[in-house]
Specification:
By secondary structure, this protein is of the alpha/beta class. It is built from eleven helices and nine strands. The protein has a five-stranded parallel sheet. Strands 2-1-3-4 form a four-stranded parallel sheet, with helices on both faces. Bound molecules: phosphoric acid mono(formamide)ester.
């Protein structure tokens, strides 16, 4: 079973994946691997192909593979024969020919997972395709919020989540909109006009605003995003203006956010740009909780895609 994006995943299947991920979170919130899952993928191997930089996604997939008893075969851009002109598709087909059981791919080209999916017969998991989707990150964000609201007996149903920053280049934002709306949340997308989609853009099932205070005012949670300078080919974003108009510091948080509203960030966080260090480390911040759940979510996704968990 593949996981390329969340748009086509039904809400019950999406909730099923979150429920499965919960199995890997202990009563104290720490990530654990229950005995019954420790050898769930024993004897299997998973190709981890990362053609763009990554800390969180690559590390957590490696840990997830290891904790399920499988073998992680790491293929990086610098060491692979893609450097000598081989196509990524041929690389994938070669790994499949060696008996690798599944592929996890991060690549800068949005179309890549779709091209590979049609040519290999093993499960393919998208770990980020350019500005396309990042489905496992959105599962992490949804799980983090679901658990955070559950602590006060609430759910995401009817909650307002603002996603602020470089929306148009963000695969996380695309997947987050699909994920959060499946759980009944309403989403506001906000950022400088050059970095938010046009209101009429049917690709996005969300409200769009270009004013930070408007975005923050009714948000129960805020997901901050990095400006992806590596994907901006036209006019550059001025860092000082961005911090002034879009950054969140203690004063902005105190004056414009709801008292109990959460702050999330998929990382990497550029401290002093989208968030000050003090806000990133504040009581509102769920950033490290997101990172903790990254292993749980990726264990659930590996089980679902490779193990074929029939309950989903
Ligand atoms: N959130 C995320 O994708 O981080 P990495 O780029 O470090 O994997």
């Amino acid at each position: 079973m593949d996981l390329i994006g969340l748009k086509e995943l039904s809400a019950p299947k999406f909730r099923g994946l979150l429920d499965l991920a919960e199995d890997f979170v202990g009563a104290d919130g720490r990530v654990v691997t229950p005995e019954k899952y420790r050898d769930a993928l024993a004897g299997r191997s998973v190709g981890l192909l990362f053609f763009e930089p990554s800390t969180r996604t690559r590390s957590s997939f490696e840990l997830a593979v290891d904790r399920l008893g499988a073998y992680a075969l790491r293929v990086g851009a610098e060491q692979s024969s893609v450097q000598k002109g081989e196509s990524v598709l041929d690389t994938c087909r070669n790994l499949e020919a060696m008996g690798v059981d599944a592929l996890v791919i991060r690549h800068g080209e949005r179309h890549l997972p779709f091209a590979v999916k049609d040519r290999v017969d093993i499960p393919l998991i998208n770990a980020g395709n350019g500005s396309g989707e990042h489905p496992t990150q959105a599962l992490i964000d949804a799980l983090t919020l679901r658990r955070a609201f559950a602590r006060s007996g609430e759910t995401l149903e009817g909650k307002r989540v603002a996603i602020i920053g470089d929306i148009v280049h963000s695969r996380v934002a695309r997947s987050d909109v699909h994920a959060l709306t499946k759980l009944g949340a309403k989403v506001t997308l906000a950022g400088p006009s050059m970095l938010v989609p046009k209101e009429a853009d049917a690709e996005w099932n969300a409200d769009c605003v270009t004013d930070r205070e408007e975005a923050l005012g009714d948000a129960d949670a805020v997901i901050m995003l990095r400006v992806q300078t590596e994907r901006i080919h036209g006019e550059l974003v001025d860092a000082n203006s961005y911090v002034r108009d879009w950054g969140i510091d203690d004063q902005v948080a105190a004056e414009h956010m709801k008292p109990g509203a959460f702050i999330l960030h998929p990382g990497p966080v550029i401290r002093g740009m989208e968030l000050t260090a003090s806000v990133a480390d504040s009581e509102r911040s769920l950033i490290l909780e997101q990172v903790s759940y990254s292993v749980a979510v990726r264990q659930a996704v590996l089980l679902h895609c490779i193990g074929g968990d029939a309950s989903l």
